[in-house]
Amino acid sequence: MELALRTGLLALAAAVAIAGAALATGLAQGRIGSAGAGTIAEKPELAGLMIVLLAIPETMVILGFAVAAMLILKIP
Amino acid sequence: MLVPMTKVQIIGTRNVLDQTVRVLHRAGVVQIEEKLPTVEPLTLDPTAARQRDEIASLLARLDALLTLLPKRLPPKNLSALYESQAARPMDDVISEARQALARLDAPAQELARRHDQLEADQVTLPRYAKTMRQLMPLAAELAPMKNYETVALLVDRKFSAVIDLLRAQLPALTNDQFELVSRDLDAETTAAILVFPREHSPTINSLLGRESIAQVRLPDELTNVPFKEALATVESRLAAIPGELEKIHHDLDALADEWRVRLAVWSAVLHDQLQELEVRGRFGATQYTFVVVGWMPRQRLPALREALAREVGDEIVLEELPLTEREREHAPVVLSNPRPAKPFEFLVRLMALPRYGTIDPTPIMAIFLPIFFGMILGDVAYGLIVLGGALYLLRKAKPGGFRSLLIVMVYCALWSIAFGFLYGEFFGELGEAFGMHPYFSRGEAVVPLFAFSIALGIVQVGLGFALGIYQAIKLRQRHELLDRVAKVLALIAIFAMVAAAAGLLPKELMTPSLALLIVGTVLLMYTIGWIGLLLAPIEILGTVGNILSYLRLAAIGLSSVYLAMVANKIAGIFGNIIIGIIVAALFHALNIALGILSPTIQSLRLHYVEFFSKFYEGGGEGYTPFRREGIG
User: Fold this and answer.
1) Which of B120, B385, B395, B503 has the greatest number of C-beta atoms within 10 Å?
2) pLDDT at B462 over 90
3) In this complex, do A55 and B548 lie within 8 Å of one another by their Cβ atoms?
4) Does A51 contact chain B (CB < 8 Å)?
C-alpha cells in the first residue's frame, strides 16, 4: 500500500512539474508570439530574431521535463 | 571568416571620368561611399544629365511594356546579346529603343486594355444574363416601343409594397403614359419592369432613387436596347469572348516572340547605364579632377589597380586610405567560408551580420548545428526521409536562403542517420525488429543522455567564452574581457563544487572552489558597477542556465522517441494490419514534421542564445558594391 502511495505521489509530482512548466512556457510564448507576429509584419528581416525570442521560454518546459523524468525514474 | 576590407580613394582628371566609372562598374568590387564632406560634389554636365533623364523615362516605358508581354524562355546567348548591346554607343541604343517603343507601345497597350476588358466582361456579363433571364417572362408582356425607356427593378419581397406605391405615384408624373408589370421571381425577390416616355427619365430616376429601389444596371451600350435584344446581345457576346481572348493572346505572343528578348536586353543595358550616370552624384570634384572613396576587399586591390592602369592609363591614382578605429567599425562585412560551411552563412545572417573585425561563427555553427540536430532526431528512417526530401527539393531550388537551408538539412539528415544507428532507432523502436542493435538506448539510459547533453553544453559554452576572451583581447575591450573571465571563473567553481558534493572530486576542493566563486562574483560585480551587487549573481545563474539549456538536446529527442513509440503501440492495438499501418503512418508523419521543425529551431536557438551571446557582436553593415546588374 505504502509503495502504491509513493508511486502515485511520484507520478503526480512528475505531472505537476511538467504541467506547471508547460503552462508557464505557453503563457510566455503566447505573448512573445503575438508581439513577434506584429514585428515580422513591419520588419520581415527580424524573422530570425523573433524565432529565437520565441524559443527562449522553452528552457522552462525542458527543465520541467528533466525534473519530471528524474522523478519518474525514481518510481520502483 | 570575415574578408579583410580596405578603404580606397581614387583620384583622376575629369577627362577620364567616363572610363573610370565604366572600369569600376565592370570590376564590381568597390562599394562607393556617400557624398564626401571635404570636396564639392560632382555635377553632371548638361549632356549627361539629359541622357540620364531620357534613360529614366525610357526605362519606365520599357519596363511597363515588358510587364504587358508574356514571358519567354531566355535564349542561351542572352548574356552575349547583353554584352553586344552594352558595347554599342549608348545614344544608338537609346534611339533604337525609342523607335521600338513608338512602334509597340500603342498596339501592346490596346491589346492589354482589350484583354482586361474581356476578362472583366467574362465575370460581369453572366451576372447580367442571369438577372435578365429572370426578367424575361415579364418583358414578354411588354411590346417594344420607340422613344420609351425600359427600366428593370428588383425588389426584396419583404418590401414589395413599394411597387404599389410607385403605381400610385406614376400617373401624376407621366401623364398616365406608363406601363408597370411585376411578378414574384422566387421566395425572396419581386421583379418589375417599368416602361415610360424617355422625356420623364430624370423625374422617374430621382423617384426611384428616393425610394431606394435598385435598378438592374446594364452595360451602357445596352441601356437603350429593347430587353429581348439586350439579352441576346449579352449571350452572343459571352460566347464570343473566349475566341477573342485567344486571338489577343496570339497577338501578344507574336509581339513577345519578336520583341521580348530585345526589349529585356535594352532594359538591362539602360539600367546599368543609368547606374553609371547616377553614381556620379557620390563623386567629389574640383575644376579638373574628380575623387571617389569606397570600400573593397583588400585581396581584389591588385586586380582593380591593374584594370584601371590598363583601361584608363596613368591619369588616375588609386590609393589605400589609413583607417581610424571608428571607420573600421563601419567597414562593410563580407563573409567568406569554405564551400561546405557556406550554406550556414544564411543562418548567421538570419540573426545579424557580425560587426567588422569580430569573429564569424559560421564554421563553428557548420560543425555543431548538424550534430545537435542529429542528436535530437536520431532515427535512421526519419533521417533517410529528411535526406530524400531535401535532395529532391534541392534539384529545383534556386540559389538563395531556401537552397542554403536545404543543404543544411542534408548535413542534419546525415547526422540523424548516424545517431539513429547509435540509438538503434528506425521509426522508433521498430529498428529492433529489423535486427538493429542499440549501442546506446536513449529511452532507457536517460540520465547518461542528460549528462552527455550537459557535457556538450559545457564544450560549446566554453568554446564561446574562449572565443569571447580572444576577441576581447584582440579588440582591446577591457570591460568585455573582465566580464567573460569572471563568468568562466564562477562556472568552473560551481561545477567543481557540484562535483565535490557528488563525490566525483575530493571533498577538500569545496573550500577553494567556494573561494574561486567569490572571486568570480566580485570581479563580475566590479565590471558591472554598483548595480552589479544585484546583477552579478543573477548573471552567473544565467550562465549556468545557459549550460542546463543544452538538456533540450536530450529532452526533445526523448519526446520524439516516445511519440514514435506511441505511434507503433497504437498501431498495434487495432489488430488489423491495414488500419495499423495507416495509423502508424499518420503518427510518424506528424513526428517527422515535428522532427524537422523542432530540432532545427532548438539547435538554432542553442547557437543564437547560448553560444553567440558569449562573443558575437552583430550590427555589421552589408556590402553592396557598385556593379553591373547584367541580365539573367
Assistant:
1) B385
2) yes
3) no
4) yes
The residue ranges of every structural domain in chain A are 23-70
The span from the first CA to the last CA of chain A, in angstroms, equals: 14
Amino acid (one-letter) located at B273? Q
Task: Write the DSSP assignment of B538-603 as a string of letters.
Answer: HHHHHHHHHHHGGGHHHHHHHHHHHHHHHHHHHHHHT--HHHHHHHHHHHHHHHHHHHHHHHHHHH
CB B354 within 8 A of CB B620: yes
Lookup result for grid cell 435578365? B132
Instruction: Give the three cell numbers for residue B248.
Output: 489577343
All residues at 6 or more sequence positions from B446 whose CB lies less than 8 Å from its CB, including other chains: A69, A73, B554, B558
**Predicted complex ipTM:** 0.75
- Segment among B22-36, B182-196, B404-418, B547-561 with least mean pLDDT: B182-196
Please name the helix (run of DSSP H) or strand (run of DSSP E) that holds residue B513, with its range, or none: helix B510-528
| Structure-block grid coordinates of residue B495 | 561545477
pLDDT for B490-542, tens place per residue?
999 998 998 888 888 888 888 888 999 999 888 888 888 888 888 888 889 88
- Chain-centroid distance of CA B457 in Å reads 33
The DSSP letter of residue B608 is I
pTM over 0.95: no
Judge whether B452 is closer than 8 Å to chain A, CB to CB: no
B561 has a chain A CB within 8 A of its CB: no
Q: Are B516 and B492 in contact, with CB atoms under 8 Å apart?
A: yes
B409, B377 Cβ separation under 8 angstroms: no
Question: How far is B421 from B375, CA to CA, in rounded Å?
Answer: 11
Taking CA atoms, what residue in A is nearest to B599?
Answer: A55
Number of neighbouring beta carbons within 10 Å of residue B577: 9
